[in-house]
Amino acid sequence: MMNDRYTRFSERNRKRCESPIGFNHPIHKWSPSDWMVATFGELGEAANIIKKLNRIRDGIKNRKGETESQLKDDLREELADAFTYLDLMAQAFGFDLLSAAEMKFAKLSDEMGYVEEYRPFEGRDGER
Fold first, then answer.
1. Rounded distance, CA 56 to CA 47, Å?
2. Contact assessment for residue 75 and residue 46, using Cβ atoms and an 8 Å cutoff
3. Domain spans, the chain
4. Which positions ≥6 away from 16 have C-beta within 8 Å?
5. How many other C-beta atoms can be found within 10 angstroms of the C-beta atom of residue 126?
6. Count of C-beta atoms within a 10 Å radius of residue 46
7. Element housing 86 (H / E)
8. Taking the mean position of all CA atoms in its chain, how far away is CA 50?
9. List of residues 6+ apart from 68 with CB closer than 8 A
10. From the DSSP assignment, how many helices (H) and strands (E) are in the chain?
């Protein structure tokens, strides 16, 4: 189940962050701006990769000669880094990122009048 995978990831993520053999960094030591800067640093790197993918799309050669496949692999890693920071930031503020995303998704869907055939988020982490 996806939520179980996320829960295990989130637990391991925090443990590595705070462990003396990991980053040795208690998550509450960073300010909100520290977490946001770290997250946007990774998103900035992802944006640079997207710029290079756009060049390939437009027939412009990248100076370093990266292939589309290499760039997509790099993008996957940068987005994963950003997700990892977002998860830690959410934990520092005392909430579960996946639950927050699910609730926001359902709220916006309701506001839009978007009715899903299957509403998988119903009843999780607070009734809607």
1. 14
2. yes
3. 2-94
4. 22, 23
5. 7
6. 19
7. helix 68-92
8. 16
9. 53, 56
10. 4, 0
Phi, psi at 120, each rounded to 5°? -70, -15
- As given in the structure block, the two tokens for residue 114 are 């978007």
CB atoms within 10 A of CB 113: 6
Which residue's structure tokens are 């997509």? 72
* Token digits of residue 48: 């640079």
3-state helix, strand, coil in the chain (%, to 5): 70, 0, 30
Q: What is the pTM of this model?
A: 0.84
Per-residue pLDDT of the chain (128 residues; tens, 9 = 90+): 457 999 999 999 999 999 999 999 999 999 999 999 999 999 999 999 999 999 999 999 888 999 999 999 999 999 999 999 999 999 999 999 999 999 998 889 889 888 875 555 555 444 33
Distance CA 52, CA 66 (A): 8
Helices 32-57 and 68-92 sit at what angle, rounded to 10 degrees? 160
Among 76, 34, 37, 71, CA closest to 52: 71
Spatial separation of the C-alpha atoms in residues 12 and 84, rounded to whole Å: 11
